[in-house]
Amino acid sequence: MKHPAHRETIAVETTEVLSHQAFEGDQYILRLHAPECASLAQPGQFAHLSCDPMLAMRRPLSIMRVDSVKGRVDFLYKAVGRGTRLLAKRKPGETLSLLGPIGKPFTLHPDRPRALLLGGGVGMPPMVFFAEQLKTAGKSQPLVLMGSEVPFPFSKRPSQIMVPGIPEGVIASMPLLDDRGIPSRLASLQGYAGCYEGYITDLARRWLDALDAAQREEVSVYACGPHPMLSSVAKLAKDYELPCQVSLEEYMACAVGGCAGCVVKVQTPDGVAMKRVCVDGPVFEASTVF
């Protein structure tokens, strides 16, 4: 049986920790020198990282940014269990084993250049990667909406980019994206200054309602985040009749399709099938899983 093309690009390499920044809420941004992964990675894919020499099981982390010239790969993650807490102790100069990039990436809808990117919590990294790729390719002007109920892992900044349809006063943005000319807005229920008070799906509805019918015909939706958020995103897409791709978050053991420990039910033309999030995903059409 022929394997999907994205399974033929998985590499194993020993990487060096270049930097490791800590943020509030047990969040970290890890930068590795991983030239093979950097040269192959696409938005929505992830890497399976060793966290500590004493821990056999790897942990899957979504890729946030790559620099294929310098061979760098960035990951944003939250320390929530033994593996990621051990990973949080890794220091610059140390080495980690990386398996990746793994999985099916996001793909821009060919007839809908208005890309609406929604990232929640540790689902933000693929949206950053995808937004930068789209900007570089010049095929789309993405709008990135990010939500978090813990402090954002970056210093919020009033955006320099106007976005029609976004409520007045919702001006907080991610500086990394704003500096590249990519509009972004933030949402939270925690009362953070400049952020939308509510869910990012509610903010997305405000923006979509401000578009005319012809403009909405150009919109496609892409999302990554916790399951309840993705369920709401799928409903949003259905309500507005928009194509939507979601990247699922699941516990993984092998991450290469061997153990089938990350299967989910997916609707196919032949009925419901069990698909592995690691290699059949993690990106799926929203309508097939919700």
CATH homologous superfamily heading of the largest domain? Nucleotide-binding domain of ferredoxin-NADP reductase (FNR) module
Mean pLDDT over all positions: 92
Per the principal axes of the C-alpha atoms, what is the gross shape? globular
Largest sheet: 7 strands, mixed
Topology:
Blueprint: E1 11-23, E2 27-33, H1 35-40, E3 46-49, E4 59-67, E5 72-78, H2 82-87, E6 95-102, E7 114-120, H3 124-137, E8 143-147, E9 157-158, E10 172-173, H4 175-178, E11 184-188, E12 196-197, H5 200-209, H6 213-216, E13 219-224, H7 227-239, E14 244-247, E15 263-268, E16 271-276, E17 283-285, H8 286-289
Structure description:
The protein is α/β, with parallel strands linked by helices and 290 residues long. The protein has two domains: 5-102, Translation factors (Elongation Factor Tu (Ef-tu), domain 3, Beta Barrel); 114-244, Rossmann fold (3-Layer(aba) Sandwich). It has eight helices and 17 strands. The protein has helices spanning 35-40, 82-87, 124-137, 175-178, 200-209, 213-216, 227-239, 286-289, and strands at residues 11-23, 27-33, 46-49, 59-67, 72-78, 95-102, 114-120, 143-147, 157-158, 172-173, 184-188, 196-197, 219-224, 244-247, 263-268, 271-276, 283-285. The strands form four sheets. A seven-stranded mixed β-sheet has the order 12-11-8-7-13-14-17, with helices on both faces. Strand 1 (11-23) and strand 2 form a beta hairpin. The two termini are 29 Å apart. The model is unreliable at 1-6 (pLDDT under 50).
